[in-house]
Amino acid sequence: MKVILYTQEGCGLCRDAEAMLRRMQKKNRFELEFVDIEADSSAHALYWARIPVITLDGEEVASAPLDERRLAAALSA
Fold first, then answer.
1. Among 26, 44, 50, 52, who pairs with 17 as Cys (CB 3.0-4.6 Å)?
2. Residues 6 or more apart in contact with residue 15 via CB below 8 angstroms
3. Which domains does the chain have, with CATH numbers?
């Protein structure tokens, strides 16, 4: 399972999302990748107003504001 966190430098919500995902990695096995939307123009166009955005195996499962229970359910499915 591959989880991507779309983020950008200086984003406090993104740091919170990373911490949440790191905690969830202890219960669910998944690969965590980070994409800085400032370095990826297509990601920037899609997500700039909604970061952090989290995808699971290519499907968007969460964006700001993050719901930890909903995200945990998606990762457990």
1. 52
2. none
3. 2-76 (3.40.30.10)
